Amino acid sequence: MDTRKIVLSVLGLLLIAVSFYAASVIIANKNTQKPIPKKVVKTVFVQTVENGIVPIVISANGNLMAKRRVELYSEVQGVFKPGSVLFKPGQKYSAGQTIISIDAEEYNASVQSSKSNLYNLITSIMPDLRLDYPEVFPKWEAYLRNFDIQNTTPPLPTMDSEKERYFISGRGILTNYYNVKNQEQRLSKYRITAPFSGVVTDALVTEGTLVRSGQKLGEFIDTSVYELEVAVSKSYSDLLKLGEQVELVNLDNSKKYMGKVARINGNIDQLSQTIRAFIEVRNPDLKEGMYLQANLNTKEEAEAIEIDRGLLLEGDKIFVVRDSILDMIDVEPIFFSDKKVVLKEVPNGTTILSKPVIGAYAGMLVKVLKDMAKTEE
Question: Where is the CusB-like beta-barrel domain (predicted)?
Answer without folding.
Answer: 228-299
